[in-house]
Write a structure and sequence with these properties.
By secondary structure, the chain is an alpha/beta fold. It has helices spanning about 30-50, 60-75, 80-85, 95-105, 110-115, 120-130, 145-160, 160-165, 170-175, 185-210, 225-230, 250-270, 285-295, 305-315, 325, 350-355, 365-380, 405-420, 430-435, 465-490, 495-505, 510-515, 520-540, and strands at about 5-15, 55-60, 215, 275-280, 300-305, 330-335, 340-345, 385-395, 425, 445.
């Protein structure tokens, strides 16, 4: 038998919730296009630059919807994102007070140390603002239209991917100029942004066609499937957690099916085929949820290490698990009648090192540590079967904390992995297909059942179980009951029904509940709280109903920025001591 190797399933998750107000079509927050020109662009570049490297990417359909929408906005010449529209504004001296506040409120957001301080002109603009901020509204007497033009240009330059800065002569010229940006300069920047966004889906499709990557999907609007199916699944990992007043989301199984089927249709339209695998939103699984995915032909899914530990306890009625390395480094088959599905479980330690620790280290040191960790896992393998390590994490939010948007870390990481004699970079579908073969050199475990949970702490505590999160669910359940009643009355035509179904699906997304809680900053909680309540209100308006008065009241307040325990966009797989 061939000597065992170490198979690495390196899997990047790409997701943004729907930031559009569906009634106006206007974007409320700019994060989709900003991550597009920085992170989605750079992540494709690193694979294109190293044809030997292999990785997998998960694209949530609601993110792809927005990328295509931005492309259409540029093609039609009508920008519905307020910040982009201001970048395109002809006369910056004609800005009204609301527009000036939007630029000032938006254009210093980012990691100061890595995204602002390295650029002297941008830092100068920030210094001017901090000196004048105590003046309040009077500061506008000193901040000219040229200041606003330079600030909005530098904000977008700072959010441009490192690969773009190194390869775009237009971006290089703007950065060298540094100040006194003209309308022509801003139009040049807009053209670059348009080209980057419109090229993203074709670039990733070409990488998959070449066999270098696999692209998977997520139920369309990123809902927590197990919670749509049954709120009580929360208690697998949190036995005493308080739940929403309604213990079952109304007609949740049908809603879960709709998200899965819409995702499959979206993926086939954009990438020419159905996805073989899915990352359930937030790695949230339950036996019922995995069974539902299997019924739809999904061959594999992935979740967190904590779910595996809880599932082993539940499946084999044991009070003690073997050493971690003996059960973690293999995929597992979960069976349900005639259907089964392969499940991958992330290595929390290695995944969180990329997400949280390596950004403070020199790229050489970080890559050496990662490779050494894999070599240690491989060296500890006494079996004839190769070990499978799944490193799964956010592919967009970590990089702003790295120097140069993670350019040196990712370049060196892919180079080291693709040249290593004992490490095989493989996609989940390749691993799942091989490990099913009786003569395979890859291991495959079996789980008779799954403990419900997510990649965060192995539970659903990030989305349910606290007063504010449960209130969010109660408000959604009330809206869903109103939705069901209006549809039963048959008063909506086909187009109206499609519009309300889409709006309901947006409200069912996981992100709103993620942000409720005092572990997030008050500023971030407020923006997502308002957007969630706006989405619920829009649902009532589309149903031709008056929104309840309680949607005018905030759901969650969050913590002060300085005391928030977490940056908000990312969390660790396991709680830190």
């Amino acid at each position: 038998m061939t000597a065992p190797k170490l198979y690495l399933n390196l899997y990047w998750h790409m997701h943004q919730p729907d930031y559009r107000d569906t009634l106006s079509g206007e974007y409320v927050l700019p994060w989709t296009y900003l991550h597009a020109i920085k992170d989605y662009t750079d992540m494709a570049y690193h694979l294109e630059s190293n044809p030997k490297a292999r990785a997998s990417f998960n694209f949530v359909p609601v993110l792809l919807d927005q990328l295509e929408d931005y492309s259409q906005q540029f093609a039609q010449g009508h920008l519905r994102d307020p910040l982009l529209a201001l970048l395109a504004k002809e006369d910056m001296n004609a800005l009204n007070e609301e527009e000036r506040y939007l630029i000032l409120d938006s254009c210093f957001k980012g990691h100061h140390e890595k995204m602002l301080a390295p650029f002297a002109y941008y830092q100068c603009l920030h210094n001017m603002y901090t000196k004048l901020e105590p003046l309040g509204q009077s500061m506008f007497n000193y901040l000219s239209g040229q200041y606003m033009a330079d600030l909005i240009v530098w904000y977008h330059l700072a959010w441009t991917g490192e690969s773009v800065r190194r390869n775009s002569s237009e971006i290089q010229a703007l950065m060298e100029k540094g100040s006194q940006f003209t309308l022509e300069d801003r139009q040049t920047l807009l053209r670059v942004i348009a080209e980057l966004i419109s090229g993203l889906i074709p670039r990733y499709r070409a990488l998959e066609t070449s066999g270098q990557i696999e692209i998977s999907s997520t139920p369309h609007y990123h809902p927590i499937l197990p919670l749509l199916l049954d709120f009580r699944s929360t208690r697998d990992a949190m036995p005493y957690a308080p739940l929403p007043h309604t213990l079952q989301y109304p007609d949740g199984r049908q809603r879960a099916r709709a998200h899965i089927e819409e995702a499959q249709a979206s993926h086939k339209q954009r990438f020419g085929k159905l996805p073989k695998g899915m990352w359930p939103a937030e790695g949230a699984v339950s036996y019922e949820a995995l069974t539902l995915l299997a019924e739809h032909g999904v061959q594999w899914a992935a979740t967190g290490e904590g779910v595996l530990a809880n599932s082993l306890y539940k499946s084999f009625d044991t009070s003690e698990l073997p050493p971690r390395q003996e059960y973690l480094y293999k995929p597992y088959r979960v069976s349900s009648g005639l259907q089964d599905i392969i499940c991958f479980f992330r290595d929390d330690h290695l995944s969180d090192k990329i997400g949280f620790e390596y950004s403070t280290q020199h790229a050489d040191q970080a890559v050496a540590d990662f490779i050494a960790s894999l070599e240690q896992i491989h060296a500890g393998n006494s079996s004839e079967k190769s070990r499978v390590v799944s490193v799964i994490l956010d592919g967009e939010n970590a990089w702003e904390y790295y120097p140069y948007n993670g350019y040196y870390f990712l370049s060196q990481l892919y180079a080291a992995l693709s040249e290593h004699e004992h490490i095989v970079l493989a996609t989940p579908s390749e691993i799942a297909s091989q490990c099913r073969k009786p003569s395979s050199n890859l291991p495959l475990g079996h789980l008779p059942t799954i403990a419900a949970g997510s990649w965060v702490y192995g539970s659903f505590s990030t989305w349910i179980g606290s007063p504010d999160k449960n209130l969010g669910w109660d408000l959604l359940c009330e809206a869903k009951q109103a939705y069901d009643e209006v549809l039963r009355e048959g008063l909506l035509n086909d187009d109206e029904q499609a519009a309300v179904a889409r709006q309901l699906a947006i409200c069912e997304g996981s992100d709103w509940f993620w942000w409720f809680g005092d572990y997030n900053s008050a500023i971030s909680v407020s923006s997502f709280d308002q957007l969630y309540r706006r989405n619920l209100s829009n649902l009532y308006h589309l149903l031709n109903l008056e929104p309840p008065a309680n949607l005018q009241q905030s759901i969650s307040s969050g913590a002060s920025t300085s005391s928030a325990a977490n940056a908000g966009t990312m969390r660790r797989g396991q709680e830190t001591p």
